[in-house]
Specification:
Blueprint lengths: L2 E7 L6 H13 L3 E7 L16 E3 L9 H15 L3 E5 L4 H6 L7 E4 L13 H10 L4 E4 L2 H9 L8 E3 L6 H4 L15 E5 L8 H11 L6 E5 L5 H10 L6 E5 L13 E4 L8 H9 L3 E4 L4 H4 L8 E2 L3 H13 L1 H18 L2 H12 L5
Helix pairs in contact: 7-8, 7-11, 9-12
């Protein structure tokens, strides 16, 4: 009998957690029946799912600030659907975990990271809520950083914690035709792929890039869309570098753009295990990044000196050092590619999630 999985996302826009679900659902095909709830109604990621899947968006009304009303609504949905597994995603779906307090369905909660309000500290109310509500749930985290936090700060039982690293399709991203992003223009290209919102802090990257071009000609490619786009364009104008910054908008196939980057840059204030870094590693790129989440341990050892504090000048220095040593940068990219294929290929992730979705012990 086909197992029914109910997935609850604060939003089903295109993002890391949502794209991981797309990876999993497309891989497993019709092995499962999926119901998806987007609490804010955004369903942009639905278009990424294979049309052959047994997958359905369901509209569940959410009343902001009306917790008890929401809990009653969510409990009715759970009782009507009786999913084999309720899967909630991040803090924004916590009310569903609360609604399932008596175990209407087995529950898996997935924490991928935090918004800007928890960049530098955990909010006490949320810590206590997680500690109480999630004690009897299985809790999945993709990063070692989050695993430590969940065990030591949230104090969740270790036998209820799962660490499943993210994985990428290394074949899809491992076909880098040009190992030099300057091949077509003679000018190196610094690139990033991100949703343009506050915690990604692309402002920092633009400021770093303004420093870089004072020392060496280069271009910056920002792949992605989001609410910060107008401000980012304005900042590039203010810094006098608008003609050197390319905003591509959202890209459904980043593997077609990544091979033309010289360096992949990540400027976030908060991350855990970003898929964009794994995709860049699989492509064979050196990484210049802020020191957030597991990034330092994700990249090859040779790359770790270019994982730097969250300052625009340190990020600029890392980029400039990589540009000044193209042979070293190429070697780092090759080491990243090998590490991605060895450790972070999606096949390992699929095997682990298959057991979870089937209700098997991991």
């Amino acid at each position: 009998m086909t197992r029914t999985l109910l997935h609850v996302f604060p939003t089903f826009s295109v993002g890391g957690a949502q794209m991981r679900f797309v990876q999993l659902a497309n891989y497993f095909g019709r092995n499962y029946r999926h119901f998806i709830v987007s609490m804010n109604g955004n369903a942009d990621a639905f278009a990424k799912l294979s049309p052959d899947l047994n997958v359905h968006m369901i509209n569940v009304p959410v009343k902001k600030g009306k917790t008890w009303t929401n809990l009653n609504t969510f409990r009715k949905v759970l009782k009507d659907l009786r999913p084999n597994l309720l899967i909630t995603s991040n803090w924004g779906s916590m009310e569903w975990a609360m609604a399932n307090f008596d175990g209407i369905s087995p529950h898996l909660h997935m924490e991928d990271g935090f918004g800007p309000e928890e960049t530098d500290r955990q909010l006490l109310r949320r810590v206590i809520t997680r500690r109480i509500v999630l004690r009897r749930s299985m809790v999945m985290v993709p990063s070692a950083t989050l695993y430590t936090l969940a065990s030591s700060v949230w104090r969740l039982p270790l036998n209820r914690l799962l660490h499943i690293p993210n994985g990428v399709d290394c074949l899809r991203f491992g076909n880098r035709h040009c190992l030099d992003g300057a091949a077509n223009t003679g000018i190196p290209i610094i690139g990033t792929v991100a949703t343009l919102r506050a915690e990604k802090n692309i402002h920092r990257l633009i400021e770093a890039f303004a420093n870089v071009v004072q020392h060496q000609p280069a271009r910056l490619a920002v792949v992605g869309d989001g609410p910060d786009l107008p401000d980012l364009k304005s900042l590039a104008n203010q810094l006098g570098i608008a003609d050197r910054v390319i905003f591509t908008g959202a890209c459904a196939q980043p593997e077609k753009l990544l091979p033309f980057f010289t360096i992949f840059a990540l400027s976030s204030d908060t991350e855990q295990m970003p898929l964009s870094v794994l995709e860049a590693m699989a492509t064979g790129l050196p990484i210049a990044s802020t020191d957030v989440g597991d990034v330092r341990n994700m990249v090859a050892e040779e790359n770790r000196e270019f994982i730097v504090p969250r300052e625009s000048f340190t990020l600029a220095a890392a980029i400039l050092d990589l540009l000044a040593n193209p042979a070293q940068a190429k070697q780092i990219g090759q080491a990243n590619s090998l590490r991605a294929r060895t450790i972070y290929d999606q096949s390992k992730m699929f095997a682990a999630y298959g057991k979870v979705f089937d209700g098997e012990p991991c």
